[in-house]
Design a protein that fits this description.
Elements (H helix, E strand, L loop, with lengths): L1 H4 L10 H19 L5 E2 H7 L3 E2 L8 E2 L2 H10 L3 E2 L6 E4 L2 H12 L4 H8 L30 H10 L6 H9 L1 H10 L6 H15 L6 H14 L7 E4 L2 E5 L6 E5 L2 E4 L5 H9 L11 H8 L25 H15 L2 E3 L3 H9 L52 E7 L15 H4 L5 E4 L16 E3 L8 E2 L3 E3 L1
Parallel strand pairs: 11-14
Antiparallel strand pairs: 1-5, 2-3, 4-5, 6-9, 7-8, 9-15, 10-15, 11-12, 12-13
Length: about 475
């Protein structure tokens, strides 16, 4: 507007604050009635524009003639009007959002609630049918159209004034989280914690729509997921291992295992520490087969799989061993891959159930190639609350195959010895065990007792892991 003032005769100019206020009212009303980018008849626009604006409650309102406001805005290229001036639209969506955001700051949160509210529960979510031959992840929840405007408004609020952010949080925690991403340093710790807590509550509620839970989980990854690295203690005792005629009782000592698979955020630290360049972390075969050919996992830069709190995938067994050795050195504790028996007990509990939740397969409890909500990629850790194991582990069935230390095929009854992390046992090119199935496998592969194998040098888009801490 300052630039436009130099091009305008003084007697035709209106103060920039008057123009901005009138345009913000116009932008808000246009967005509320017609959305973005829509051409609206000029006479309709004039009918909703203010004839006067009050910039300061202590002083009388000042005239804001609609025709003059539109003419000045067109000269400043804020809006577009054809030669006959019959229609109006903002010249860019961001410009309309910018002006509308200033009006949002003046609105009562009660009047904005419906503009922030998404369909939240599965019963409210519009049905999305995957097109034929479409293997992309499902879309996020349908937007209201006010997301970017609200984010701009929160970012424009006075420093330390987070009342608008708190109001958004009450209606839409995901939108509040997106706002938080824009104002990180300006948000106090209490408000930040409140947003993260609400996002955690969102992903923990199985009644919340899957598309909402995925969005909340991805946002947690961007904000810093506090769940990453959590461990579960598996008490000493016997459990039923295997299935059918091979099923048997096996005693294991107490151990700690990851509550979730290792994430991209965790593996990133290994890469930053020159994990693929330090030979001491790798077995001899791993150094030759992996580090001479690559310096990161195969899918590290693939947007479908590389969000901070998605499980890291595309890993060879060798790379999982190297990560554990690196983390052992960093922490001063023995970090290792679980044995096949340790993985199975943690996943199914002690009673021999088929899946972490029971004996019947239910597609809504895991990320697999089943049911009518196939995700077609990995999901952020821990968004299938109803699929956790009796000990509290998440994602044991589906999401990502998990490497174990064990060589294929160890005979049953299983001998629980201490040798599966010995250097000699880890060397060589033996086939290694994977457990749990993945997002791209059917129900049969996700059974807790299902045994699978692969060459240790790699596992395309499916191989991940979780680790054991041995005190």
């Amino acid at each position: 507007l300052d630039w436009a003032k130099t091009k305008c005769p003084p007697d035709q100019w209106l103060d920039a604050d008057i123009q901005s206020e009138a345009l913000s009212i116009m932008a808000f009303e246009m967005q509320a009635r017609s959305g973005f980018g829509t051409r609206v008849k000029t006479e309709q626009i004039k009918s909703i524009m203010p004839r006067q604006v009050q910039l300061d409650p202590k002083w009388p309102p000042q005239p804001s003639p609609p025709s003059q406001i539109l003419r000045l805005a067109a000269k400043a290229k804020i809006i577009e009007m054809p030669v006959d001036n019959s229609t109006v639209r903002f010249s860019h969506q961001l410009i309309q959002e910018y002006f509308a955001a200033h009006q949002v700051l003046k609105k009562s949160p009660a009047n904005m609630a419906d503009l922030w509210r998404w369909p939240w529960y599965e019963t409210e979510m519009p049905l999305w049918l995957r097109p034929e031959n479409n293997y992309e992840p499902p879309p996020p929840p349908p937007p209201t159209g006010w997301e970017e405007t609200t984010i701009l408004a929160v970012g424009s609020a006075l420093e330390n004034d987070n009342q608008l952010l708190r109001s958004v949080l009450e209606i839409n925690p995901i939108l509040a989280g997106r706002c938080l991403l824009q104002i990180q340093d300006r948000c106090n710790l209490n408000d930040r914690k409140a947003i993260i807590d609400r996002l955690l509550k969102t992903i923990s509620d199985p009644e919340v729509a899957l598309r909402v839970r995925i969005s909340a989980g991805e946002l947690l990854g961007s904000l810093g997921d506090p769940r990453i690295g959590e461990m579960i203690v598996i008490p000493a005792g016997k459990f039923l291992m295997g299935e059918g005629r091979e099923q048997h009782l096996l005693y294991l000592s107490e151990y700690k295992i990851g509550k979730y698979p290792v994430t991209n955020a965790e593996y990133k630290l290994f890469l930053a520490a020159d994990g693929y360049k330090n030979k001491s972390y790798w077995t001899e075969a791993g150094w030759q087969e992996i580090c001479q050919k690559q310096d990161k996992p195969r899918l590290w830069h693939d947007d479908r799989y590389n969000k901070p709190n998605q499980p890291v995938i595309g890993l060879s067994w060798y790379a999982c061993v190297a990560y554990c050795r690196w983390l052992s050195r960093e922490t001063g504790r023995l970090i290792r891959l679980p044995t096949e028996a340790e993985w199975e007990k943690a996943a199914r509990g002690i009673d021999g159930r088929t899946y972490p939740w029971g004996d019947e397969f239910e597609a809504v409890r895991l990320n697999a190639r089943e049911g009518n909500q196939k995700v077609c990629t990995t999901t952020p850790i821990g968004i299938y609350q109803s699929g956790k194991s009796p000990f509290g582990l998440f994602d044991c069935s589906g999401n990502v195959w998990e490497w174990c230390a064990t060589r294929w095929k160890k005979p049953y009854p299983y001998l629980a010895d201490k040798k599966e992390w010995d250097s000699e046992y880890l060397e060589g090119q033996n086939l290694r065990v994977l457990r749990g199935g993945s997002w791209n496998y059917k129900a049969e592969a996700t059974r807790c007792a299902n045994r699978f194998k692969f060459q240790p040098y790699g596992w395309t888009e499916r191989g991940g892991f979780r680790f054991v801490v041995q005190d």
